[in-house]
Amino acid sequence: MFVYEFMAGIVDTITGAEEDEETYDPHKHRKVEKPTSYADTMIHLLKGSIGAGVLCMPSAVARMGVPGSILCLTLIGTFAAYCMHLLIGAQYKICKRARRGYVAYPRCMFLAVQDGPPLLRWAASPLYYFVDGVLVLWQLGICCIYCVFVSENVKQVFDFYGAEISLRAHLCVLLIPLTLLGLIKDLKLMTPLSTVSNVVTMLGFILVFFYLIEDDVELDDDKLRLKTLLDIPVFIGTALFALEAVGVVLALEYNMEEPQRFVGLCGLFNIGMIIIITLYLTMGVFGYLKYGDDIQPSITLNLPQEEKKAQAAKLTFALAIFLSFPLQNFVAYSILWRKIKKKVATSPKSTFVLDYTLRLILVLVPWAVAVAVPRLGPFISLFGAFCLSLLAVVFPGLLDACLRYPSAYGPAHFRLARDILIILFGTACLVSGCYTSVLEIFDDKH
């Protein structure tokens, strides 16, 4: 549960104003009641990064072909990890300057740009709110994807037993239990839901891997080739969605007993990313080799409808994702609620009404988007391309460039050139990924 409190920006911090910037160590000024060990942090990293995203990897591999997918996912994973190191390093420097144990992501952006190049300083406040907005949009995007994922998997099982109704009808039925979950106020009450979700997720992965390895696979020329150039940005967006859990990574680094061991060439994060990329490639490649071009946006949708084990896998993942919905929704709610309380002075009764109104809105918005365009694949690549291109690539590059202003760019300003290239690459991923994903959504509606 700590991860979601951290992502919502409600963790405690302490300051250390007595020390100067050179000797100040933010790690010593973090107020963490129960820090996690190296092993615990690794388990949480794997658990937080291996979820619904891994189920969409076979669909992504189908776009790039097997060799291209292996190469591109390895490069994207390495690049994303490097950008995450930049982000963690930038936060550490800002904490030293501000003499705080921790500074939240949006506040980091504000402080870095405020002290950066004069031409950018006007954007400090807008970027602060923009980062918060992207974080909220990302969480609501995940909720939207979860709605479609649960409905599609449940629909396949119901269709087999003759209860055939449309996907949108399943989404309408889903609204009532989603609303009830969204009204849970205490994060501690969600702990049992999270525990059950973790258990059934592991069971679901075992069932899916059973189908991937039970038969021989065929490797023909079509499975080795890139389909079209437009598939590249969609692949990148899907890979970013699957690989990058920015909030989870920052939370784990903050909560680690020895945060110095989290980063570095052989640090915990790099080792974890190697394991994650290997698992994603295994699921993606074997899933594509198994089902070929008939692969669905989630591999669970390819499992045979008539077999009990396949039905169990679909319902298992549907249950796991359904139970994860309120946790993802909690982050967006907390960010918005903290800002609303600061702006609006109300009576206890009005506060109660406003509180639950916001909770209902944050359930209805992603649900309504899912009903309007119930497409899993394009949604995954769209939110991955937009939100994670910004949070995991563009913003870390911008933070680093501003923090090194004016004289810490190195010989020939090579660090500035690196940061500019990172920003440009992230922007290119954002534009091209969003464009191709919107095209797919538009083509499906017509």
Structure description:
This protein is mainly alpha-helical. 71% of the residues lie in helices and 0% in strands. It is globular, with a radius of gyration of 22 Å.
Question: How far apart, in Å, are the first and last alpha carbons?
Answer: 42 Å
Shape: globular
Q: What is the gyration radius calculated from CA atoms? A: 22 Å
Assembly state (oligomeric)? single chain
Main sheet attributes: strand count, strand direction, barrel closure: none
By DSSP, the count of extended strands is 0
Spans with pLDDT under 50 lasting ≥5 residues?
none
Which SSEs are present, and which pair or pack?
Blueprint: H1 2-7, H2 38-49, H3 52-55, H4 57-64, H5 66-98, H6 105-114, H7 124-160, H8 167-182, H9 191-213, H10 231-243, H11 246-255, H12 268-291, H13 308-343, H14 348-372, H15 376-403, H16 414-445
Helix pairs in contact: 2-11, 2-12, 4-5, 4-10, 4-12, 5-6, 5-10, 5-12, 5-15, 6-7, 6-15, 7-8, 7-13, 7-14, 7-15, 8-14, 9-13, 10-15, 10-16, 13-14, 15-16
